[in-house]
Specification:
Strand content: 5-15%
Number of domains: 2
Largest sheet: 4 strands, antiparallel
Oligomer: single chain
Order of helices and strands: HHHEEEEHHEEHEHE
Shape: globular
Helix content: 25-40%
Number of helices: 7
Radius of gyration: 16 Å
């Protein structure tokens, strides 16, 4: 982002618009997004025990559903996606988010990178939220795991706001990296 874009983002999240994204801007952004989340948040905390209690065991495909996304413009590698395999507990929330983004940010949906994937966290021993079918990725090429948001990653704040309204955490705003990743945890 340019300094001018960062200033506009800082104004949006309610912090001093100085063009420098640092800890104060990150804190303001997190407060901004948390203020949009439902209270109480309907999703579990991110401990493996809480996730398993809420979503079922990681890799338990009986907990998954095929969510129809036909007509929403979701594409993987340029090919239209008809269904997304996700945990049945997030399906309605995900559908509402995708419908909102289809109207406001269709370019994000056209760069879908996956939801369910039975695997461990990168570099860790715990299971990823993807292993529960409770995380989704978009625009991996410009919002990778090591790219700092918002200085080099490009996920629009409006996308993070759409997820926040449903109680979903966006990694770019909450961990300043991996802005492609959105997970159904409190």
């Amino acid at each position: 982002m340019t300094a001018t874009q960062i200033i506009e983002l800082q104004k949006r999240v309610g912090t001093t618009p100085d063009g420098f994204w640092g800890p104060k801007s990150t804190d303001a952004c997190q407060r901004h997004l948390r203020s949009m989340m439902p209270s109480p948040n309907p999703w579990p905390k991110s401990s493996q025990s809480e996730l398993t209690k809420f979503f079922g065991a990681p890799g338990d495909e009986s907990q998954l559903t095929n969510l129809s996304v036909t007509g929403l413009g979701v594409k993987y590698d340029g090919k239209s996606v008809k269904t997304i395999r996700c945990n049945h507990r997030i399906s309605l929330s995900l559908l509402y988010i995708l419908e909102e983004l289809a109207g406001s940010h269709p370019e994000i949906l056209a760069d879908y990178n996956g939801c369910y994937n039975f695997r461990k966290m990168r570099g860790g021993s715990s299971y990823s939220l993807h292993a529960y079918g409770a995380a989704i990725d978009f625009c991996a090429g410009t919002n990778g795991n090591k790219q700092s948001w918002p200085s080099s990653a490009t996920m629009p704040i409006e996308v993070m706001e759409a997820f926040a309204k449903r109680g979903v955490l966006s990694s770019g705003a909450f961990w300043s990296r991996d802005a492609m990743h959105h997970q159904w945890t409190a």
